[in-house]
Amino acid sequence: xxxxxGIVGLPNVGKSTLFNALAGTSVPCSNYPFxxxxxxxxxxxxxxxxxxxxxxxxxxxxxxxxxIRFVDxxxxxxxxxRGEGLGNKFLxxxxxxxxxxxxxxxxxxxxxxxxxxxxxxxxxxxVVRTELLLADLQTAERNLDRxxxxxxxxxxxxxxxxxxxxxxxxxxxxxxxxxxxxxAEAEERRIAQYRFLTAKxxxxxxxxxxxxxxxxxxxxxxxxxxxxxxxxxxxxxxxASLEAELRxxxxxxxxxxxxxxxxxxxxxxxxxxxxxRLLNLISFFTIKGTEVRAWTVEAGxxxxxxxGKIHSDMEAGFIKAEVVTFEELVSDGSLHGAxxxxxxxxxxxxxxxxxxxxxLIHFH
Length: 364
Prior knowledge:
Elements: E1 3-8, H1 15-23, E2 40-45, H2 49-58, E3 62-64, E4 67-72, E5 99-106, H3 121-152, H4 156-173, H5 185-191, E6 201-208, H6 220-228, E7 235-238, H7 240-246, H8 251-260, H9 267-279, E8 281-288, E9 291-298, H10 303-310, H11 312-316, E10 318-325, H12 326-332, H13 335-340, E11 345-347, E12 357-363
Parallel strand pairs: 1-4, 1-5, 3-9, 5-6, 6-7, 8-12
Antiparallel strand pairs: 2-4, 8-9, 10-11, 10-12
């Protein structure tokens, strides 16, 4: 699996600028609302210094990173659920993503208007959240009606689904996100097909000015975290305009640029780190022939299931896994060196993959 984030926010908050910077694309981004009228999708290599180090050490012919997929949609405005602006028809494009990245404008600019009249992150967070709640409420009500009709025809499962949808609708009416409602695991399974937007976790991108870059965050993190009722670690301050400039530089120039702005890493790296923490994801590495490759799985994934992410035959015919930690492999210089020093372990199918594991999978 790879991490997939849906980018949401009001118009003119820098969503498309950020998308272009992260994905290295050139979708239109202008200082007027609704410049984005179609979904934009970008697949980006996940920056991982460990993979680069393995490449330097092992010199494979091919070095393949894991990826993150961004889906950018048209901006939401107050009243989108009633058809204001471009409405909420584009929300269907992000119903299958793993989590939402809500871009919040934290910079003032006389040349870039604001659809709500001025910069107010707390208000903007509330507007978008309300529209997502209302979109989910429409989904619940529409499908509740269908399930109730089927239940009246004698469909018992439809009756159970209707009961859960009624419960969800009540929570949404009270302004409670689906993921915060008291639903049993079986109830969650019954409504998973409807892909409620507020069932997804969210992180927040504070699109700050250059004056608030680096350690100078201007209080935006606290303001957004407070408005969203989320811990501050879910808020990632990024200067979207600077990230766009970074894309035009080579690796060495990029490192100097990042350091000059008082940053320890790029916005993409910080966004990925937060996304992985949000979804409890880890990375492991495989060596196969002349390729070293990174993979993403949920923490706690068993090694046989992780092998299945690579190819279904590998899970079905799994025999064993040879595992060495990234640190041990680097210390010993090679997989052969790790074996000689007894660092390479043989693990069975129920071994839980750890972040940074380097794994050689044996299968029929």
